[in-house]
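Colleagues,

For the teaching module next term, I've prepared a clean inverse folding example: a structure given as tokens, and then the sequence designed for it. I'd like students to try predicting residues themselves before seeing the answer, so please don't circulate the second half yet.
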């Protein structure tokens, strides 16, 4: 059980979690997709606020367990937990302190085209656009349709204004 002092320590050092995530992304050569990936490739005024990292891994459960253990060792306690994601092959690393997901690790079904920035692999914007269009066309993810349409609009704005 975490004490109030433990929780305070977690909130005082958010850069520790961010640093650990980035270190693991580089070391394991994992590919980031989702909002973090589009944000790194879009101009700041077309970016969307996000706190968690969506990551692809060939062995998501193993990767998630290893990263979880590293996080808890770094904080010197049980600050994070592993949860199964909504979709098959997805695992969430959640902060026990804030209740927020810090990483979603999903099964990588095929090698992704990526751009590297500061040693971290980010899924390429054209691939993100294709994936979003495919999901919208299928119509099987109504719960996230607004979010996907808005992302598509931001990508297309960047393309039309030759900022991409």
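(Answer key — instructors only)
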């Amino acid at each position: 059980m975490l004490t109030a002092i433990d929780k305070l320590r977690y909130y005082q050092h958010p850069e520790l979690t961010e640093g650990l995530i980035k270190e693991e992304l580089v070391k394991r050569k994992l590919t980031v997709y989702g909002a973090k990936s589009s944000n790194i490739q879009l101009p700041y005024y077309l970016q969307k606020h996000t706190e968690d990292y969506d990551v692809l891994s060939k062995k998501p459960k193993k990767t998630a367990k290893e990263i979880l253990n590293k996080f808890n060792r770094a904080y010197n306690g049980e600050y994070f937990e592993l949860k199964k994601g909504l979709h098959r092959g997805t695992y969430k690393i959640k902060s026990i302190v804030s209740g927020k997901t810090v990483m979603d690790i999903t099964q990588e079904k095929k090698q992704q085209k990526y751009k590297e920035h500061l040693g971290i692999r980010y899924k390429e914007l054209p691939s993100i656009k294709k994936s979003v269009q495919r999901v919208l066309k299928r119509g099987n993810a109504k719960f996230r349709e607004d979010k996907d349409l808005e992302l598509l609009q931001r990508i297309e704005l960047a393309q039309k204004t030759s900022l991409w």
